[in-house]
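Entry: Poly-beta-hydroxybutyrate polymerase domain-containing protein
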Amino acid sequence: MPDGRALYRHIAAIGDGLSARADPFGIAAPILHAQMAWLMHPQELGERLAGLGTDLWQLQWHTWRRALGLPSMDPVKPHADDPRFADPVWTDSATWDLVKEWYLAFTHHVQDMLYETPGLSGKERRRAAFWWRKWLNAVAPTNYLWSNPIALRKFIDTRGHSLWQGWQNMLADLQAGNVRMTDPDGFHVGEDLATTPGAVIFRNRLLEVIHYAPTRPQVHAEPVVIVTPWINKFYILDLNPRKSMVRYLLDQGLDVYITSWKNPDASMREVRFDDYLLEGISELVRVAREASGAERVHAVGYCIGGTALATWMAWAARHYGEDAVPVRDWTLFTTLVDFHKPGDIEVFIDEESVAHLSAQMAEKGYLDGKDMAASFRLLRSNSLVWHYVVHGWLYGESPAAFDVLYWNMDTTRMPCAMHAWYLRELYLNNRLVQPDALVVAGEPIDLRRIRQPLYAVAAEDDHIAPWAQTFHTLHHVAADKRFVLSSSGHILGIVNPPVTPPRRHYRVATAHRADRAPLWRDRAELRDGSWWEDWMAWLKPRAGELVPARPAADERHPALGDAPGAYVLET
């Protein structure tokens, strides 16, 4: 008899070689591997099929009862976070109930089998399940006119107008090259978004530094500098007066400086990650210190801006000396430094996909923001793609004006050299957490050299920077640490102003290097409201005495333009 495992490895190697050329993002290979793995484990497959037979019998019994008009409890229920079948017609009507039940039964069983595939690594199981889930989401009955009772009802009630309007919406989406989540003309940056007064007081090829005008006669002597992510535009932290973190900090008597990154084009293909540190973060810190007269600043980093800030802090500890870093303390929002398990995004990250993406970027000189936005939307295809297809194309609903979604669609590009390095060194090789494994701007870096106190914030439902993985940051930093776990996701967990009555909650506690995420969560204090208030209680006593407020611009740092500046308007 041939060696079955050797045969499996041989076939898998052939499949990998072909998929590297025809399937660089590894869609087919993990699914093929899962199918072969089940065939190579007949005992486990038999046990699974026996369980499937029992479940299908229960579903068939439910079908007979509903067909006879008898009451019957649904044997398969949608997941708690799946709103596709929330309309009562999916339960009240026997016909539509059976459509729903058979679809859910097939979906849940396929997903469960993929997650339980014997003989595969956890990463490959997750990749196989991810790509199958995308197909299963695409063929859901809710996505098509003749299998969606709500769409049919609207078609009848509006005498076809809903479908006509949906056709117009589809044409507009095709023209835009995207399924629109919001009205693209619903907002204008500088008019109803990013309206906090301030001035651009520094500009180079990579960023503008915006200094905001004070809202109080006195401010704390040491300023706050915010490193925003360059994969999006900075104004997520200054959406409108009610949601603006910038305005909140100003009202707390803090002196605020923020990065607004340039939207790169092909001429910036050779810009490196080092340049973002030296020409970006270093310049932000220098300008804030000069303009305020303070020896040290309080640094804040969000998402990839936080990853860059952590890298810069390790670089500065080596460059200046651990006790001479010009930062008093630092804060991270939903930031990864340990990329061992980076969340759902890992389905796009392997040698073949990174090589393919790097080659594409080399042709253009940059990664188009629409490509990255499409990848992130694919991670949550039901809520970020199919929801808008159904409501826009089938129901004929025009996209509403929503500031967060407008910001999300206001994409930016990334330079080829910087992003290729970022993907390979951090995501693939995970070298940021390896002591002295990375040489950045001429210095070997080690996160353990950072001595400045850290305030770190994560979000419970974050699929871009999973909170348990962001918690690993604390294992690599020796300084005092306070950790916050906010409700909601990557954006709304951070853009979380205090309101009455409170709409969200958070957990907070001091963290230690020996802590593990689940144990920390068990002992952390649960509070209603916004973590912004806890952050202020931590930050303001460290920010120095109150001094007369400084204008947004002065003779030494004249205004090069009003906030929000010129770079944020680049398309």
